Amino acid sequence: MPEATTPAVELRDVVKRFGDVVAVDHVSLRIAPGEFFALLGPSGSGKTTTLRMIGGFELPTEGEVLIEGEPQGYKPPYQRPVNTVFQNYALFPHMTVAQNIAFGLEMRGVPKEEIRRRVGEMLELVRLSGYERRRPHQLSGGEQQRVALARALINKPKVLLLDEPLGALDLKLRKAMQLELKAIQEQVGITFIYVTHDQEEAITMANRIAVMNRGRVLQVGTPQEVYEQPQTFFVADFIGDTNFVPVQIMQVGAQVEVATAAGTRLTAAWAEPSLRAGAKGVMAVRPERMHLYRPGHGPEGAEWNQVEGIVRQVIYKGLDIRYEVVLAGEYSLQVRMPVGRAEETFQRGEHVVVAWPRAAARVFRSES
Amino acid sequence: MNELLQRKPSLRAWLLLAPSFLWLLVFFIIPLGIIVVYSFLERDLYGGVVWRWTLENYRRVLDPLYFKTFLYSLWIAFLTSFFSLLFGYPLAYYIATRPEKTRNALVLALMIPFWTNFLVRTYAWLTLLRTNTGLINVWLQAWGLIDEPLPLFGNTFAITLGLVYGWMPDMILPIYAALEQLDRSLLEAAEDLYASGWQVFRRVIWPLSLPGVVAGTMLVFIPSLGAFVTPAILGGGKRLMIGNVITNQFLGAHDWPFGSALSVLMMAVMLLATLIYFRTSGEEARRGGLG
């Protein structure tokens, strides 16, 4: 993120307590103008509370929220240049689609003619032209979602806050809406801050992701960064599928060396900085970075980790084949290989070598 | 038998409905029919009826003396509904926005007065409001705040107060039920969309609570229109409502046909008022969002 521009939204050391419960714990974030920024975390991670503090629905116990460089202090929601798309849409059930979308402009006393024109534009943007007179309960979930989006966007906010907006939709519709939301965001150029517990959704849509757990931001980065270079066990576990192998640290530094319980020596590209030789940890490797070979046919070179095992399960998934391989040390690995030639396909019960490059392996402190 | 019921679900429904249907028939529809028939008959001198058809009873209803009492009753019923709504709505809103435990306790507190007989509660008002010996006037005079007793008794004020006191819970409960279901995020959405506190109320809370307001108003208006205990006690015999006149025709004057005619007319007015009210408030609810 370029430092020269003023962030659209900045959180400075924000804390939110509800009684004894710390919902948000010293969170600092800088979100650039025009960014599609995702707050990702499990329920109770503080992501929604963080969003509500930007919107003005909650006030921080400590710290400061700035929008376009301006401290928001105790400003109520309607004095902030942001609008919100609520989790359950919160459409006014007694108003038509057009009345819902017009509400914000009407409250600000915009002339009727202009309201009519802008409502028309918004309906076109969200592809709901002709739905003006319908009531929310006559719409499908996806249509309600688009009305909620139009109702917020018509006010031309500097920042749009979205609280799990696709949570109520079925999987297929959700996938379609993800792409549509992203397209709309690119079209209008407004900063989106998007709360979700769905890591796939965050990766699909966001320019950057802040992964949250227990009120803290654990990592901020592009989807590729958080997927490929997780900084903590939680992030590695929460995003995507990962194999975790319990290990003992033998050596840290430029090269990380570890040993499994069975005594196999393995190497990794990176270890969490707080780890010292002799400590216990876990090695994390993505299933698609692992390869299977027949015994004696493993890859050459020091950059490869290799362990032997037996195939317990073979699942054909169309795009790839997923193997479960049991190792001597009583644990198993998930391996994902593209569907390929017959000699690269393995059967249940076969002895195999599982190999993965050092670069694909990261070592974390095991979560307490 | 069992098999027959399995095959004919409509028969099963009828059997389930039969007791309440019979009840309504015997204790509501037939007596109502008797009243309607009586209202077209002549009285005899001993409290019975003479089987001769006449419209005389309805002509008497339009006599200014009775008609004024009728209008007065409508006015009282209107005042009672208005003040019950004015005082009841904020209370319903307050209860509906409390945490669940507090909410249930408050609703219970609202119903506790019902455990005491209505007549007793109305007499309790009598001891407070009476002109010369009522506690309020006695105290106010004792403290030297007033010289002359305030006119708290035997007037429209006393009757309306007694009725509002008696029927306000019937206003509060349906409004509370409507407000309790109100999704809090709708209020946040309105606030997010630049609505002031008043606008949030006028454009979101009020229209969405309207079904409760309509139900509550009907529940208060109808019994107030037909009230006879409250005006009899708190009206001090000076102000009568149509309910008192009807009571008097049946119990005092032994003129059942005329009492029946008054009852029929009152029911007709209630029916009409209900229909008009539901029609207009339904439209208001539909228009709701338009400013």
Textual characterization of the structure:
The complex is a heterodimer of chains A (368) and B (291). Chain A has 368 residues and is an alpha+beta fold. Chain A folds into 2 domains: 9-235, Rossmann fold (3-Layer(aba) Sandwich); 241-364, Nucleic acid-binding proteins (OB fold (Dihydrolipoamide Acetyltransferase, E2P), Beta Barrel). Helices cover 23% and strands 35% of the residues of chain A. Chain A is built from 8 helices and 21 strands. Chain A has helices spanning 47-55, 97-107, 112-125, 141-153, 171-188, 199-205, 223-228, 233-238; strands at residues 9-18, 21-31, 36-40, 62-67, 70-71, 82-85, 159-163, 191-196, 208-213, 216-221, 243-251, 256-260, 265-268, 270-271, 280-285, 291-293, 304-316, 320-327, 332-338, 351-357, 362-364. In chain A, the strands form 4 sheets. Chain A has a 6-stranded mixed β-sheet with strand order 6-7-8-3-9-10, with helices on both faces. Chain A has a 6-stranded mixed β-sheet with strand order 13-12-11-15-21-14, with no helix packed on it. Chain A has a 5-stranded antiparallel β-sheet with strand order 16-20-17-18-19, with no helix packed on it. In chain A, strand 17 (304-316) and strand 18 form a beta hairpin. In chain A, helix 2 runs parallel beside helix 4 (141-153) and helix 3 crosses helix 4 (141-153). The longest helix of chain A is centred in the middle third of the chain and has 18 residues, at 171-188. Chain A is elongated. Chain B has helices spanning 2-7, 9-38, 56-61, 64-96, 100-111, 118-129, 135-142, 156-180, 184-192, 197-225, 229-234, 242-251, 256-287; strands spanning 42-43, 49-50. Chain B has one domain: MetI-like fold, CATH 1.10.3720.10. In chain B, helix 4 packs parallel to helix 8 (156-180), helix 4 crosses helix 10 and helix 10 packs antiparallel against helix 13 (256-287). Chain B contains 13 helices and 2 strands; from the N terminus they run ααββααααααααααα. Chain B is mainly alpha-helical and 291 residues long. Chain B is globular, with a radius of gyration of 24 Å. Helix content of chain B is 75%, strand content 1%. In chain B, strands 1-2 form a two-stranded antiparallel sheet. The chains are: A alpha+beta (368), B mainly alpha (291). At the A-B interface, helix 2 of A face helix 9 and helix 10 of B.
